[in-house]
Amino acid sequence: MNDFKTATEAAGIRYTHTFENRPKKEDYYRHNHSDYELYICFSGDMDFVVEDRMYELPPDSVLLIRPFTYHYASLHNFQKPYHRMSINFEKNTAFPETFSFLESEKEFFVWKQGDLLRMAEEAEAKMAEYGRNDSILYLKMFINEMLLGLKYAGKTFQKTHSLNPSVSQILRYVNDHLNEPLSLKKISSNLFLTPTYISQVFSKHMKIGVMDYVKQKKIHLAQDMIANGISPCAAARQLGFGEYSTFYRLFQKYLKEKPSAPLATRGREKEAPALPKH
């Protein structure tokens, strides 16, 4: 199979389907976002990190990644093909019957309900065939079909482990205090860990600096708050930013847009490019 990447974005949904015979190490950036993500691994020699949990991904495994959770793929062998699909969507994309499932703690599944790749390829073919509005509707149906399948998948796959006890402790503290001013010194004094140790252990296991993690989390939370009608100034204040100029600069750095953009685009759909055939 030749390398390919298909993608579309519309109605608050981002869909990407990628196959690489020789995956490139630099492609798998570490990030979080304000929407849900279905991450489907068809093949690849890899682990996947979600906050302080590392999962070994067998073929046809599915991760349900919830908003504001830091995550990344960690490939072991770049000589083996890497085939995956990711679908980002807002909560209102899901049918009411799946709302409670989205809020559950389950996040890792091995698909046992038929040929997952064939199911995905059939959905992709339909989206390429249909007109814009119908393809968006079909994509929403596909997402809900996936969610319902996961809801009744039974026991989740358990082969996982925590990255490091100190990292888990740091993450819990940070995520419980995102509405406050946070600094490395403050985290250190409250956890009784030295700043040097916190910086080293966090960077080693999370592949990101602790304060960079804090800033990204706060900015993505602010993006969601603004999209839901809170003013940028109020969002900055509620998330512990002492200076609006600092908030403004970080918002542009991480999201490549002004803080007013999520509010201005609320309720508007982006044009959906047609899915290319491969």
UniProtKB/TrEMBL annotation:
SUPFAM superfamilies: Regulatory protein AraC (SSF51215). InterPro entries: AraC-bd (IPR003313), HTH-like (IPR037923), HTH_AraC (IPR018060), RmlC-like_jellyroll (IPR014710). One of its GO terms (molecular function) is sequence-specific DNA binding. Residues 168-265 form the HTH araC/xylS-type domain. This is AraC family transcriptional regulator. Pfam families: AraC_binding, HTH_18. PANTHER family: ARAC-FAMILY TRANSCRIPTIONAL REGULATOR, HTH-TYPE TRANSCRIPTIONAL REGULATOR EXSA. Keywords: DNA-binding. The keyword DNA-binding applies. Gene3D superfamilies: Homeodomain-like (1.10.10.60), Jelly Rolls (2.60.120.10).
